């Protein structure tokens, strides 16, 4: 249904962004396809969003059509010793995780508390606490705007990488070739979690890495850990007005990692490659928690309206009244500082719509 004037700041978790040229919501698969086809036939630029947790929209807004995916619903199908859970693209992600845990299905529990919609999770290969979507994803159904037809992708078809997929690589300025309609996950029944790979989470559960716990216990601890870092949406907590992690963890040649101080966290990332901690790099470059707040060294960047979270250096937060320009000013300062200190360039995780670092 069309809306005459819609500020995109009201649809994003960072709460920035100007008006949409035209705004539509689609609550069913048929409505999604019809809206996309109509925009394409009219030659209109098209921005797709749902939960709005992984994009920063320019203060000037988006001049084309903005389509919000609002389809919801879940279906379970018994498989060969597993359960297939098919979810509509607009269904809130954490509700899916909660449903799976309540039904005694495991595989998603470490991804608890991540904001946004289910349809966005395979695009970014969303991950946290040693898990990511590619580990449980069975398939995706999507509208192919080039072919003008629904296409089904297997896990292998999507070419998953670290915070990456075919779906992301074929998206330009928030406008995807493939508009996700449903996502299907292959989950284990029985109530025990997937092996807990992440050391911090294992410690919280009193486990050794690789051991299992009740999926409900894993979900509880993940939510507690995320909340402690301002990574669970809370209208009363300005630290949660963000895109979550603004920068991805850089993957670098092993020689680059070896040049860093001995206490720099690092993780194997394939032959000759190492994944570093962006949060560590940011902190060691002089950008501590709360950088940008009134009274801090970075206050001049955005007048205190935007800052690094007071709980986690990876999140850039809207402290109230911030603009997209404010968010980006803090991001640029951090990126430049890390490059100057360590010679490593950080890359943004959220999509930047009509703006750039």
Task: Provide a descriptive summary of the structure in words.
This protein has helices at 29-41, 93-102, 121-124, 166-169, 199-205, 215-228, 254-258, 278-284, 299-302, 324-342, and strands at residues 2-3, 20-26, 46-49, 55-57, 62-69, 74-78, 82-88, 105-106, 127-128, 131-132, 137-144, 149-154, 171-172, 175-176, 178-189, 251-253, 266-268, 273-276, 306-308, 316-318, 351-353. The model has no long low-confidence stretch (mean pLDDT 95). Helix content is 24%, strand content 25%. The longest helix has 19 residues, at 324-342. The strands form seven sheets. Strands 6, 7, 8, 11, 12 and 15 form a six-stranded antiparallel beta sheet that branches. A four-stranded mixed beta sheet has the order 1-2-5-3, with helices on one face. The protein has a three-stranded antiparallel beta sheet with strand order 16-18-17. It is built from ten helices and 21 strands.
Brief digest:
With 357 residues, this protein is an alpha+beta fold.
CATH class of the largest domain: Alpha Beta
- As a whole number of angstroms, the C-alpha radius of gyration is 20 Å
Strand content: 25-35%
Shape descriptor reads globular
Helical content (DSSP H or I, runs of 4+): 10-25%
Function: Cell wall formation.
Subcellular location: Cytoplasm
Protein name: UDP-N-acetylenolpyruvoylglucosamine reductase
GO molecular function: FAD binding; UDP-N-acetylmuramate dehydrogenase activity
């Amino acid at each position: 249904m069309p809306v005459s004037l819609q500020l995109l700041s009201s649809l994003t978790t960072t709460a920035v962004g100007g008006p949409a040229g035209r705004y539509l919501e689609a609550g069913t698969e048929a409505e999604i396809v019809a809206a996309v086809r109509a925009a394409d036939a009219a030659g209109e630029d098209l921005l797709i969003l749902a939960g709005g947790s992984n994009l920063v929209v320019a203060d000037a807004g988006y001049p084309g059509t903005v389509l919000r995916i609002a389809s919801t619903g879940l279906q379970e199908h018994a498989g060969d010793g597993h359960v297939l859970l098919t979810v509509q693209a607009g269904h809130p992600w954490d509700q899916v995780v909660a449903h799976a845990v309540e039904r005694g299905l495991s595989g998603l529990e470490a991804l608890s508390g991540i904001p946004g919609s289910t349809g966005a999770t395979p695009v970014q290969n969303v991950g946290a606490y040693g898990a990511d979507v590619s580990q449980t994803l069975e398939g995706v159904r999507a509208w192919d705007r080039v072919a003008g037809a629904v296409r089904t992708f297997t896990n292998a078809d999507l070419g998953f990488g670290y915070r990456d997929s075919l779906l992301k690589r074929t998206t330009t300025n928030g406008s995807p070739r493939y508009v996700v309609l449903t996502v299907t996950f292959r989950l284990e029944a029985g109530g025990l979690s997937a092996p807990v790979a992440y050391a911090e989470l294992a410690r919280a559960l009193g486990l050794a890495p690789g051991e299992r716990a009740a999926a409900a216990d894993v979900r509880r601890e993940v939510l507690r850990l995320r909340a402690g870092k301002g990574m669970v949406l809370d209208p009363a907590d300005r630290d949660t007005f963000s895109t979550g992690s603004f920068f991805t963890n850089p993957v670098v040649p092993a020689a680059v990692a070896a040049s860093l101080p001995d206490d720099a966290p690092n993780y194997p990332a394939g032959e000759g490659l190492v994944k570093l901690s962006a949060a560590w790099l940011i902190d060691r470059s002089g950008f501590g928690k709360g950088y940008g707040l009134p009274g801090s060294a970075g206050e001049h960047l955005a007048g205190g309206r935007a800052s690094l979270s007071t709980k986690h250096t990876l999140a850039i937060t809207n402290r109230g009244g911030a603009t997209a320009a404010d968010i980006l000013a803090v991001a640029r300062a951090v990126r430049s500082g890390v490059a100057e200190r360590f010679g490593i360039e950080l890359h943004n995780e959220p999509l930047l719509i009509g703006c750039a670092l």
